[in-house]
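Researcher: Structure for this, please.
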Amino acid sequence: MGLRLGLKNRFERRAKGTVTAVSSNSFSFKTEDGKVFTVGTTNAKITSQFKGIIALADVHVNDKVGVSEITAGSQITAKTVVVTPANTHPASGRGVVSAVTGSGFTLKTNNQGIVSFVIVNTQSTRAVIKQQNGAITTSASILVGSKVMVKGLWDEVLNIFNAIKINIR
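Model: Predicted structure, token format:
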């Protein structure tokens, strides 16, 4: 964790860890070196890994967090919090849509001759979908045969890609 002297008895810190508890206006997390912090989030900007704004209610025990906080005396107040849900990691991919469902689509990828099919979920996140001209659109614009680029969070347990950004090419 870095520590930088700021204005008049204030310190700015950045820390990463795993959420251990969540309340209505704060959460606690544990760093890799075993330190536990409780952080107030009343005025914090809480975002997902790809900068989508989320609420404290979307933060859960075992989620991974990166916190930029201001410490004044014994009070710790978060400035920004970046949350990655448990059992996920950031990922991206591109390919052709091979099937469409009410909750997302199947993406056919080809990585140096290795073809695979990935289930892309567009409903569990607030996915931003853009057309080729940059205009924001809805999931109704994603059709079988569409070429897309996706960014999101790969759920290692469920084997599902939760889309956060989708670009239709």
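Researcher: Any notable elements?
Model: Residues 94 and 149 are 4 Å apart (CA to CA). The radius of gyration is 19 Å.
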